[in-house]
Specification:
Helices cover 83% and strands 0% of the residues. The longest helix is centred in the first third of the chain and has 36 residues. It contains six helices and no strands. The protein is an all-alpha fold. It is a multi-pass membrane protein. Keywords: Cytoplasmic vesicle, Endosome, Membrane, Synapse, Transmembrane, Transmembrane helix, Zinc. It is found in: Cytoplasmic vesicle, Secretory vesicle, Synaptic vesicle membrane; Early endosome membrane.
Length: 215
């Protein structure tokens, strides 16, 4: 592959990182606002998770810009700091979701509706599926572990969307309030895993984000 082809692929990867940041910001605002309005913990927690993903995506965006210049994939101090902040934020989210879910279950709390959870998770599943395909395509073409790891992290977001979808649909079909809390607990578990992996990557461990980056 010629130099121009490689440059174009890195340019595409950089654009995909920007799209990821913008999408997560919009998704975070919508999910937190609607989750608070409808009193659905799973949707609210999903929104907070989206904001945390923005921090990680900014680190990826910075890294891709640096790789385009010098070709070095080792993380610099900025990216390591972003990963540590991401990991800490995920741990805080995990604790908050667990505490809130337990309180909601004890109080037999029910959301006003989870219809917005169904809508947002449907959009997220479709968008993340397309994003993952594009990131994997670029990552394989460049044989870039960094870009493939980013694709794996987007796949973790897809799993979160599937959890939100299941919890939201389950509540609408059954009216069982605890399903929203259970969905929040599963999101908390996945957030804890993402936090652990963020700290691991900051320490220089192999990428995973709940998935192999070589799939």
């Amino acid at each position: 592959m010629g130099g121009k082809g490689i440059k174009d692929l890195y340019g595409k990867a950089h654009l995909l990182a920007v799209i990821t940041i913008i999408y997560n910001l919009v998704e975070g605002v919508a999910s937190m606002g609607l989750g608070a309005a409808d009193e659905t913990l799973a949707l609210f927690g999903f929104g907070v998770d989206s904001f945390i993903e923005v921090i990680s995506a900014v680190g990826v965006w910075h890294m891709l810009g640096r790789i385009r210049i010098n070709g070095e994939e080792e993380r610099d101090r900025f990216e390591q700091t972003a990963l540590r902040i991401t990991g800490g934020a995920f741990y805080i989210l995990t604790a908050g979701l667990i505490a809130s879910a337990v309180i909601n279950m004890v109080q037999h709390h029910k959301p006003e509706t989870t219809l917005w959870g169904i809508v947002i998770s449907s959009v997220s599943i479709s968008f993340m599926w397309l994003l993952i395909r594009q990131k994997m395509k670029v990552g394989k073409a460049l044989s870039s572990p960094a870009i493939l790891a980013d694709a794996a992290c987007s796949r973790a977001c897809l799993y979160l969307s599937l959890v939100l979808m299941a919890a939201s649909v389950g509540y609408e079909l059954t009216g069982i309030g605890s399903l929203d809390a259970i969905g929040a607990l599963i999101i908390a578990y996945l957030s804890w895993k993402e936090g652990k992996e963020a700290f691991g990557k900051a320490a220089g461990l192999a990428c995973s984000c709940s998935c192999s980056c070589h799939d």
